[in-house]
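It is worth pausing here to work through a concrete case rather than discussing structure prediction in the abstract. The textbook approach is simple: state the sequence, then state the predicted structure, then interpret. We follow exactly that order.
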Amino acid sequence: MRLSLRQWQVLVAVADAGTTTAAGARIGLSQSAVSAALNELEGQLPFPVFDRIGRGLVLNAAGRALLDPARALLVAAQALERSAGVGQAGAADTLPLHLRIGASTTIGNYLLPGRVAALLARQPEAQVDLRVGNSADVVAEVQRLEVDLGLIEGPCHASGLQVLPWQRDQLVIVAAAAADLPSRVDVPALAAARWLLREPGSGTREAVEQGLLPHLHHFARSMQLGSTEAIKQAAAAGLGIACLSRLAVADLVALGSLRILDTPLPPLSRQLWMVRHPSKRVPPALAELLALPPGVFASA
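Step two, the predicted structure:
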C-alpha cells in the first residue's frame, strides 16, 4: 500500500478546514506536518487534488472524486480499531454505546429528547451526541460521515445517500390567541396575512411551501426567522401566522398563547425522513431508539 491512512486523513481534514493550519488543529498535527503529508500524497498521485487560492486550499474535481471514498476508508479503519479493542481496556462488546445523530430542528427539539431519555434510563453509560440544524446541515453531516444517521423534515436532494421514510408529522396553522381573526379563516385572509417562515434550506420551510402554495399561490407578506422557537414566539406576539408541527406548538397552545386556526384547507402533514451514508452502519441501539422495523437497512 503506497498511501497511508494518515495521508488520507490529511486530505479529508484539509478539505473540511480549508487550510493546513486549521486542518492540523483538527487532527493534532503541526502545520508543517500536514503540509508535508499533503505534498507526499499529491506527489504519489498522477494529479493535484487541491487548487491553491490565496492562503486557502480548495478541492478540485479530482479531489472531490476522492473525498467520499477517503472518508469511508477512515470510518472503516476506525470501526476496525473499535472492534479490535484498540485503545480500550476491554473487548469491543464491553465498550460504552456512543451514538451520533443529526436531526433537523423540529425532530431534534421535540421528537428525539424523550426517546434519548428512555435510552439513557436503560443504559446510563451510553453517550448520545445530538446535532441539531436545518435539513441541509444534517444532510451535509451525513455526507461527511460525521453522524450515524440523519433525520430531516424535508426531501433530500443529495445524491449517493440512502433515504427512507421514518414517520409523518401533522402540521397546523397557528396565530396569537388574541389575534383579531374569525373563528374560521378563509383562503383570501390566509393569502393576505403575514406569514412567519423558516430560512431556505429548512425542511419546515419546504414542507410549508409545498402544503400551502398550491392553495394560496404566493405569500403576499412574509417574515423570515431562523428557528421554530423564534417563529412560535413571534406568532404568539401577534407578528403573523405560521404553519408548524403540532408537536412544536403544543406547549404554547396549552398555555393559551397560540390558537390553532380553523381553515378550509385540507389536513396538512409532511413525511419525516432518515438519511444514511452507505458506508455507515446503523447501530442496533439507534434502530431501537427510532423504533425501526428489523432489517430496514439490510438492503443498503
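Step three, interpretation. The chain has three domains: 5-83, 95-167+272-289, 170-269. The two ends are 28 Å apart (CA to CA).
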